[in-house]
Amino acid sequence: MNDGANRDATKRSARERLQLERERQKAKDKRRRTLVVSAAVVGVLGLAAVVGLIAANTGKGGSSAKGGPLVAPSGATGTDALAIQTGKSEAPSTLTVWEDFRCPACKSFETNYRDTVHELEGKGLLKVEYHLVTLIDGNMGGSGSLRSANAAACAQDAGTFSPYHDVLFENQPEETDDAYGKNAKLLELAGKVDGLDTPAFRTCVEDGTHDSWVKKSQDAFRAGSFRGTPTVLLDGKDIFGDKANPLTPQKLKEKVEAAGTGGAKTSASPSASASPSPSGSAKASSGRAASPAAPSSSASARSAGRTSTGSAGSADRSPAHSGMPMDH
């Protein structure tokens, strides 16, 4: 009797131990599953946070790199609306100018030809299509070319491009001085133009509203394989290409007036400014412009320029080029 009872007790004890072991194993498996699930959740949340951070940073960097959405200034014309036009649209002659507000050779061109250009515009004989580029920023570093070009485009929105354009060149800093990289300087100069310094203009300058438009203009300049700035074309033809017969303001006036009275005139569409001729005559004539007076040998009018590829250029000391720097 006792032996039977002992055997039953032993069996119950074995079953109980087995049941207890199974329960302990279930509890262990449950804890393991809980840890695995928790780790997976944490991993997913962590990955989502990282992806979100990368996306946020990419968005900021992309906006900065591209300059935001492309916004052309009011009234921009030409291919892809990359030109700012002055003068009457029905004028018989078109002067296409690729310029950089930091470029000393561009300032020399403007100083020598500004009065003649404005006179011809006033007579309704000439319209000018300005393309703003950032060549000096690429060659010298800084952001003055971009910032000043954007500010000029903002002035176009305000209907005061021409006077502000002239003010920027009249007050151009030294090429190595990136003063135009500071919006405060550009806003200060806006005070020299009646009615320009407004809240709308300031916002446009500070926000870089037209930065992407300026960068696209620079891309078009590079695609055109132009040698440097200024590149100046009259009705699609490089007017600085003839070294044996260099242009002067008087010769420009005569050419435009002849075209206006039915004289011979080369016909070309505005888009011709973006495509060099096979002979390379549209290549900025190495950044040269002739002075209105007799050719000068003054060294002060000749500075070593830079090419559009960023390499240093040499000063042109030939009298035929009237002292304008080469290959800016």
Describe the structure in your own words:
It is a single chain. The protein is of the alpha+beta class. Helices cover 48% and strands 7% of the residues. The chain contains 9 helices and 5 strands. The protein has helices at residues 2-66, 104-122, 135-140, 144-157, 161-170, 183-190, 199-207, 211-223, 249-260, and strands at 84-86, 93-99, 126-132, 231-234, 237-238. It has a 5-stranded mixed β-sheet. A hairpin with a 2-residue loop joins strand 4 and strand 5. The longest helix has 65 residues, at 2-66. The radius of gyration is 35 Å and the shape is elongated. Residues 44-66 and 264-327 have low confidence and may be disordered.
What's the structural blueprint in terms of helices and strands?
Blueprint: H1 2-66, E1 84-86, E2 93-99, H2 104-122, E3 126-132, H3 135-140, H4 144-157, H5 161-170, H6 183-190, H7 199-207, H8 211-223, E4 231-234, E5 237-238, H9 249-260
Parallel strand pairs: 2-3
Antiparallel strand pairs: 1-3, 2-4, 4-5
Helix pairs in contact: 2-9, 4-5, 4-8
Structural class call reads: alpha+beta
Q: Tell the overall outline.
A: elongated
Spell the H/E element sequence: HEEHEHHHHHHEEH
Strand order of the largest sheet: 1-3-2-4-5
Overall strand count: 5
Radius of gyration: 35 Å
Task: Describe, in short, the structure shown.
The protein is built from 9 helices and 5 strands; from the N terminus they run αββαβααααααββα.
Key words describing this protein structure:
single chain, about 5% strand, disordered C terminus, about 325 residues, alpha+beta, five-stranded mixed β-sheet, 9 helices
